[in-house]
Specification:
alpha/beta, Rossmann fold, Ubiquitin-activating_enz, binds zinc ion
Length: 299
């Protein structure tokens, strides 16, 4: 679904043009950006892109709002939680309020769906604000096959053995020619395969190989998401305007607090982006199918 309004106030970006120049603003204006995942981090990224004056947005998320999302989902209201409004609609509504001239395409498909995955080809830059390894696998495959810049984000709040609370996150930037998300250890292919196969996951869990509770909500707070979204938006500005060289990885630790940029090189034997991959093959290679066969039933 597209929403378009062609009015744009002439001075609304004056203060950032003073930082990044008219050329930088034109780069933003010309870009189509996809945000996959319109939850805690994705909703903040989307609102940031609207304020920055991005040219066109693609928003993809299959989920609807739940009451426990309201502590961090930017733009969501208690009425949305009662009505089960889709996260894509909340994001699109926020963009309409901030910058009604930005065309927004929304999709409630999963990025693991082949048609949805292919729809990301028209983006100049892709944000991933997703949970799990399988969606990251899919987004990395898009970034590699179509040479699209891809920014992966993630948050983690855990309690250490000594009782201290770790509040951390990351922003990983996959630039064409640079290390891919697998080179950066941004996902685990075997875990991704397992996520795509619920029967195998259930079998491993019942056998005691998996200890985590699959439906247990994980902790999440808006101030961590805001930090991650801010770093990610800065990386997007780097990629679109050439502000500075992209940083492959930034580790965010709000317990210290600290930001740690981590440099990384491509792994030239990487199964995702190495010689045996579909690197930059685009439409000349078939799209991947993100499903694996279920194991045969046990006797
Ligand atoms: Zn790689």
């Amino acid at each position: 679904m597209y929403t378009v309004n062609l009015v744009r106030e002439p001075d609304r970006h004056d203060r950032q043009v003073r930082a990044f120049g008219r050329d930088g603003q034109n780069q933003l204006r010309a870009a189509t950006v996809a945000v996959v995942g319109a939850g805690g981090i994705g909703s903040l990224i989307i609102q940031g892109l609207a304020h920055l004056g991005i040219g066109r947005l693609i928003i993809m998320d299959p989920d609807q709002v739940e009451p426990t999302n309201l502590n961090r989902l930017a733009g969501a209201t208690p009425t949305d939680a009662r009505n089960g409004t889709s996260k894509t609609e909340i994001a699109a509504r926020a963009v309409r309020r901030i910058a009604p001239d930005i065309p927004v395409q929304t999709s409630r498909a999963s990025v693991l769906d082949t048609e949805a995955w292919l729809s990301l080809r028209c983006a100049d830059l892709i944000f991933g604000a997703v949970d799990g390894h399988a969606p990251r696998w899919a987004l990395n495959a898009m970034a590699v096959q179509y040479a699209r810049p891809y920014i992966d984000t993630g948050a983690e709040i855990t309690r250490s053995g000594d009782g201290s609370l770790d509040v951390s996150g990351h922003v990983a930037t996959v630039a064409p020619g640079g290390p891919c998300l697998l080179c950066l250890s941004g996902y685990d292919p075997s875990t991704a395969s397992m996520e795509l196969d619920p029967a195998l996951t259930a079998a491993k869990r019942s056998a005691g190989y998996l200890r985590d509770a699959p439906d247990e909500p994980t902790p999440s707070v808006i101030f961590l998401n805001q930090t991650i979204a801010g770093i990610a938006l800065g990386e997007a500005l780097n990629l679109l305007t050439g502000w500075h060289h992209p940083r492959p990885y930034t580790l965010i630790d709000l317990s210290s607090p600290s930001l740690t940029p981590i440099d990384a090189e491509r792994d030239f034997d990487c199964p995702a982006c190495g010689p045996d991959s579909l690197r930059a093959e685009g439409d000349s290679a078939p799209p991947p199918h993100f499903s694996v066969p279920s194991p045969p039933p046990q006797p």
